[in-house]
Specification:
single chain, alpha/beta, Rossmann fold, UDP-galactose 4-epimerase, domain 1, 2 domains, seven-stranded parallel sheet, 9 helices, 37% helix, binds nicotinamide-adenine-dinucleotide
């Protein structure tokens, strides 16, 4: 898909990933952002983009913003709560919303979609995990919802003329990141630089990717992958443990706290303690991650400390 000069709808475009994407696309496209601001910030929507505040679970709102003049939809809106006690809310907030987006696209004949899935679809799979790993065994309602949403996209791609790009993200980090381990450590260490409580045993080890690299990779895939359904892992080739993140954040803040671990092999129920995605398919399409996971964590820490 050539995005230059297109009308692009970005759902969740006031959130972390969506607002950075909207920034980038607004330079040479006509961008419409829709977001209910449940976890986003209207101030992050770029000046050049149109903004509608609204809830994409509402079909009337979708009818208003998703019209036949839209060339492509970047569907990034989602509730990221990994709350195992609220699977129905997860289903209604995310899976039903994605179904509504697909139905509306089919109704008005919009046939290009990019969708943010997650490494969590693989559950506790062997690493590095390639896109064709099976069976997918998610361990949280959030991840189960992403599997269900990918399946719906597959159906519309194969039977209703949709071209879909599915991005299975590692942990994406950078300016505007909230509700994740790096901003959490920064906040705790600002309150008390002498002690840091770390969820789990600190040995959880995951792959982190900087938002700018994530956007480069996404734009590359959208421009070059031309199957009906294009599923790509986006990540770095290395991992960073939670203790290592604590070390990096402490170094960057110039503090030397005692670590206190809450114990157990994972941070919370439904957390996948070890994750590294194979990026061979992405490399085969001509995009290679250059930064390590540690580099991404350090850069994001510096940016967040600078208030970006
Ligand atoms: N950041 C990551 O590391 C990561 C990893 C894997 C997958 N993802 C996926 O990428 C996407 C973007 O994530 P993010 O990190 O930017 O999260 P985010 O919470 O910053 O962005 C999501 C945005 O969607 C909005 N939103 C939620 N429900 C909505 C609704 N019903 N209607 C309209 N807007 C709604 C929120 O207000 C928020 O601005 C999500 O689909 C998420 O599941 C992110």
């Amino acid at each position: 898909m050539n995005l230059t000069g297109s009308r692009v709808l970005v759902t969740g475009g006031a959130g972390f990933v969506g607002s950075h994407l909207a920034d980038r696309l607004a330079a040479d496209n006509d961008v419409l952002v829709v977001d209910d601001c449940s976890n986003g910030d209207a101030g992050w929507v770029p000046d050049g983009a149109e903004f509608v505040e609204g809830d994409c679970t509402d079909p009337d709102l979708l009818a208003e913003v998703l019209t036949a003049d839209v060339d492509a939809v970047f569907h990034f809106a989602a509730s990221k709560a990994v709350d195992t006690d609220r699977p129905r809310a997860q289903f209604e907030d995310n899976t039903a919303m994605t179904y509504n987006v697909l139905e509306r696209m089919a109704e008005v004949g919009v046939d290009e979609l990019a969708f943010t899935s997650s490494s969590t679809v693989y559950g506790e799979a062997p690493r590095p995990t390639p896109e064709d790993y099976a069976p997918l065994e998610p361990i949280s309602p959030y991840a189960a919802g992403k599997v269900a949403e990918e399946s719906l996209l597959s159906t519309y791609a194969h039977s209703h003329g949709l071209r879909a790009h599915v991005f299975r993200f590692a942990n994406i980090v950078g300016p505007r990141l909230r509700g994740a381990v790096i901003p959490d450590f920064i906040e705790k260490l600002r309150e008390d630089p002498t002690e840091l409580t770390i969820l789990g045993d600190g040995r959880q080890e995951k792959s982190y990717m900087h938002i700018e690299a994530c956007l480069d990779a996404m734009c590359h895939v959208v421009a070059h992958a031309d199957r009906d359904l294009n599923v790509y892992n986006l990540g770095t080739r290395t991992t960073t443990s939670v203790d290592r993140i604590a070390d990096i954040v402490s170094e960057e803040m110039g503090v030397d706290p005692e670590y206190e671990h809450t114990g157990g092999d994972r941070g919370w129920t439904g957390d996948v303690p070890r994750m590294r995605l194979s990026v061979e398919k992405l490399a085969g399409l001509g995009w290679e991650p250059t930064d390590s996971s540690d580099d991404a964590v350090r850069q994001a820490t510096r940016e967040l400390l600078a208030g970006l």
